[in-house]
């Protein structure tokens, strides 16, 4: 068991990647560890040439992943767009792991991200002692990716200020990064590219400029089309996360996931599954990722405080945390849903009682 709390994808799925590489006879773009066809196999699941089972990393439309991979095989950057919880970061990480074997060159964009964190920084002790030099320069993940012909990932690109975003224009169009202080330039090696993720639902979003948008090919990752698909995704991810946290998965995980997904989808869509009752939606997104967090939190609570039994009571507090982002508005929305829908629904009595007690 690794001491790392979370292994990068290339370590977690090393056996699968090695099996795919060993049997890969396809054409590989410069700097790629796998051919594009086998990158898609790694993401979507299948079998390696030696029969090794490749687990699916993404459950959804195969054509979207093919488009993403084909984009990265060109010199055009990739932007994965979608509402929170559509596996943008997950897909981004696994694409980088399969293509270059290194998913760790990441820049997490925030309102506080500045140009130095994107382009390069300085070791100020070296700078003051010896002046500007290459030894005093601190390369960012973007610069290291350019020099190594690797992929750099930008998480939540639209959270970064627009003026900082536009520092990428030169990199994406000219494939080089000027260093005026040294009167030199870093040129990208073949194989370099950028994968960015973004969503436009959260607060604090900074729209991309037209000039920057043109340099990305946008692939929109949708929410799961059906409840069955969403349940399958959550059951798979919850099982993986429970195993990594040494939490025994209760036997009724799939049944409780189905109930939680049913509640989340109705609140998210603003209508019951049969379309007969219109509902108010809470301010949060109630994404697939939040449902996964609810289940993992519930399993942890069941393991340590409920003799391993996963019940509505162990899940209710986690569900409240996911639904109620605005204490006034969302509490009213949830209360109305409980009284008009869940109170009358067979099989959900435990959720009605537990959630009612907590709001």
What is the CA-CA span between the terminal residues? 40 Å
What is the number of helical segments per DSSP (H or I, 4+ residues)?
17
Helix content: 40-55%
Shape field: globular
Task: Evaluate the radius of gyration.
Answer: 23 Å
CATH class of the largest domain: Alpha Beta
Low-pLDDT regions: none
Polypeptide structure, described:
It is built from 17 helices and 11 strands. The mean pLDDT is 91. It has 2 domains: 9-220, 3-Layer(aba) Sandwich (Rossmann fold); 227-358. The protein has a 5-stranded parallel sheet. A two-stranded antiparallel sheet has the order 1-2. The chain has a two-stranded antiparallel ribbon with strand order 5-6. The protein is of the alpha/beta class and 359 residues long. It starts with 8 loop residues before the first helix and ends with a helix.
Keywords summarizing the entry:
359 residues, alpha/beta, 2 domains, globular
Q: What is the topological layout?
A:
Blueprint: H1 9-12, H2 14-22, H3 36-44, E1 46-47, E2 53-54, H4 62-72, E3 77-81, H5 88-100, E4 106-108, H6 115-118, E5 120-122, H7 124-130, E6 137-139, H8 141-148, E7 151-155, H9 162-165, H10 168-174, E8 176-179, E9 184-187, E10 193-198, H11 210-213, E11 216-220, H12 227-244, H13 253-269, H14 288-305, H15 312-323, H16 329-340, H17 349-358
Parallel strand pairs: 3-10, 3-11, 4-7, 7-10
Antiparallel strand pairs: 1-2, 5-6, 8-9
Helix pairs in contact: 3-4, 3-5, 12-13, 12-14, 14-15, 15-17
């Amino acid at each position: 068991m690794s001491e790392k709390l979370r292994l990068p994808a290339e370590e977690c799925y090393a056996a699968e990647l090695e099996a795919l590489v060993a049997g890969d006879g396809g054409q590989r773009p410069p700097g790629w560890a796998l051919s594009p066809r086998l990158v898609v196999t790694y993401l979507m699941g299948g079998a390696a040439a030696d029969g090794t089972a490749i687990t699916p990393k993404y459950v959804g439309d195969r054509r979207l992943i093919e488009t993403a991979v084909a984009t990265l095989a060109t010199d055009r950057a990739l932007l994965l767009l979608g509402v929170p919880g559509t596996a943008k970061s997950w897909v981004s990480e696994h694409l980088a792991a399969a293509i270059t074997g290194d998913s760790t060159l990441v820049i997490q964009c925030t309102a506080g991200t500045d140009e130095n964190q994107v382009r390069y920084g300085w070791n100020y002790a070296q700078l003051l002692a010896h002046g500007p030099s290459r030894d005093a320069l601190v390369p960012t993940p973007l610069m290291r990716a350019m020099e190594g012909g690797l992929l750099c990932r930008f998480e939540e690109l639209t959270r970064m200020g627009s003026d900082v975003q536009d520092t990428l224009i030169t990199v994406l169009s000219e494939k080089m990064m000027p260093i005026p202080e040294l009167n030199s330039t870093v040129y990208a090696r073949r194989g370099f590219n950028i994968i960015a993720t973004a969503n436009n639902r959260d607060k604090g979003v900074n729209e991309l400029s037209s000039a920057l948008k043109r340099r990305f090919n946008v692939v929109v990752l949708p929410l799961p089309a059906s409840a069955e698909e969403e349940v399958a995704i959550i059951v798979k991810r919850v099982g993986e996360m429970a195993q990594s946290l040494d939490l025994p998965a209760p036997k009724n995980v799939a049944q409780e996931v189905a109930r939680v997904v049913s509640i989340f989808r109705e609140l998210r869509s603003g209508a019951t599954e049969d379309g007969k009752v219109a509902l108010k939606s809470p301010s949060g997104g109630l994404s697939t990722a939040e449902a996964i967090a609810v289940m993992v939190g519930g399993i942890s609570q069941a393991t340590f405080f409920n003799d391993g039994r996963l019940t509505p009571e162990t899940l209710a507090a986690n569900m409240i945390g996911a639904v109620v982002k605005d204490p006034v508005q969302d509490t009213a929305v949830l209360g109305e849903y409980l009284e008009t829908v869940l109170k009358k629904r067979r099989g959900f009595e435990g959720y009605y009682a537990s959630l009612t007690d907590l709001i």
